[in-house]
Amino acid sequence: MSAFSWHRFIAVLVKEFVQMRRDRLTFAMMVGIPIIQLVLFGFAINADPRALPAAVLSADNSVFSRSFVRAVENSGYFRVVSRIETQREAERLLAEGKVQFVISVPENFSRKLVRGERPVLLVEADATDPAATSNALAALLTLNQTALARDLGGSLAHLQNGPPPFELRVHRRYNPEGITQYNIVPGLIGVVLTMTMIMMTALAMTRERERGTMENLLATPVRPIEVMTGKIVPYIIVGYIQVIIILAAAKLLFSVPIVGSLALLSVVLIVFIAANLAVGFTFSTLARNQMQAMQMTFFFFLPSMLLSGFMFPFRGMPEWAQWLGEVLPLTHFLRILRGILLKGNEVAEILPSLWPIVAFLLVAAAVALRRYRETLD
Amino acid sequence: MSADAAVIDVKGLCKSFDGRRVVDEVTIRVGRGRICGFLGPNGSGKTTTIRMLCGLLKPDSGTGTCLGFDITREAGEIKRRAGYMTQRFSLYEDLSIRENLDFMARVYAVPDRRRAVEAALERLGLQPRAGRLAGQLSGGWKQRLALAACLLHEPQLLLLDEPTAGVDPKARREFWDQIHDLAASGITVLVSTHYMDEAERCHELAYIAYGKLLVTGTAEQVVSRSGLATWTVSGEGLFDLAQELRHQTDVAMVVPFGNVLHVSGVDAAALERAIARYGGRPGLQWRRSEPGLEDAFIHFMEDVREAHR
Lengths: 377, 309
Prior knowledge:
Number of helices of chain A: 15
CATH class of the largest domain in chain B: Alpha Beta
Radius of gyration of chain B: 22 Å
Number of strands of chain B: 14
Oligomer: heterodimer
Order of helices and strands of chain B: EEEHEEHEHHHEHEHEEHEHEEHEH
Largest sheet of chain A: 5 strands, mixed
Distance between the termini of chain B: 44 Å
Helix content of chain B: 25-40%
Strand content of chain A: 5-15%
């Protein structure tokens, strides 16, 4: 026997290619995943988000405040999406994450400015994700020097010399020190749940089929809904244990402030976990073996990770990527999660993010049950 | 259900997969307490037929009842009252014997579950191994476990799909003794098999090939219906002789059995004339004999195969 035989090597090689060709899904994944990564990393991800939504709360409708707002928009980092009247509205928009910034122009801004009293202009930022706001804030802080240059002529020209004509004060809300962990660690709850819940259910069902135990199960009087719920509940419990571990670590290791209601969080968790389990269940009805189930899980997990705003600022992505992200339950769950834990959000503020998860759950569960019934035959 | 009503009573069952007809107009009747052997080559539609009987598959056409319940509309009722032993071991290899039985007992809502499981373990002599994982068992023990599992809910109908494949002769014999005990207690059994000795232990037989039911009846009826006349020949040069005989039109088939050849034909007189030419060859002993079940089945199968061409 020679140490290396070309015949034997070729025999194995040819067999591998034949098997590779047979498993269409694996083949598609091998080609598809690099393409997806290319598209997501290449086009969708942008660590320098621009045109962030801002609201203007102006109590002083003067040429100066208008010029400032225009200058803010011209910086490219801000896009004024609404003009509001009350501080309560400002709070609500920030809590729901509808705007990233609220620019408050105080009463008598122009009068004080003209008198050289250097009035204070307040910018509140939703700093839960420091990466999303830091560049915008850096750009903003240079504006008090230049924003009003054109308006300060004639008798006001003297204001251009010396210190800036008004003061810019920035409040980084929810995460004043800009600690990245405050954002990442709670987000991990969503990421870990997405990964394990989908994978475990996808594998649990495919395993029955791969090992041939499905036939026995189907020959018994057990109903599809009984199989589905019986298989899902253990993983819901596992999901809760994961959440408890991460929350404990967040509190004890990373000192993440937990502002909101954990009871509310645990209710939302059920919906989110169920949505992921339904996806896993659907995958298990599509996959022919556990390997394929794993691949499908990865196929879903990758965009969830990249497009949900977990790793990269959601608003930094182009519009098509944001739309894709809006479909994924993780995107909405992260908003709820950060909302409850960091902002202390209540039911009213999380509802806009909760219903998309519910809708996703209903669609996924319908597909799963429908597919499962078909596989009975 | 009246006493003479058949436990399995299906007519004209058809099932196609991807446009290929796997089961074609199969009609089976099996009375209470009877053991029906279901025979046929691999891929002939045995498993598909059994799956239709227990409600795992919906027939494309055809009707019928099992235990008096409609096989399409009342599959749930049939599942509750029938025991189905799959061809491949389909209990959980990562559960212990007791855990597997316990699971099945729960699924079937067996009353007094604990005692039923213990009784099943005892009856099958599995008690000393109850804690062993099912995956560690040998083929024979796996088969016993699978049978115990599908007997837990005291089914009135047993559907066994090649239950003794890969099981040693002693375990097979014990298994068949148990099947006869069950039948004697009034349970109806449909069992598919490839073994001719097992076929002979059945009360009646159904032979299926290429999805078509070719013949039903007792072993004797099946043999006589084949209409075969058979000679056995022993001696030297049997291999070459077999080649020559196969070219004779009046010889339907030549099958080697150990050191003898079975030479069969449909027309007894023509067969005799055909082999007379070789009668004088030295070293050969010719003897008139009865065709066996296997001869009959192979004959039936070759008939359809020709029809299929």
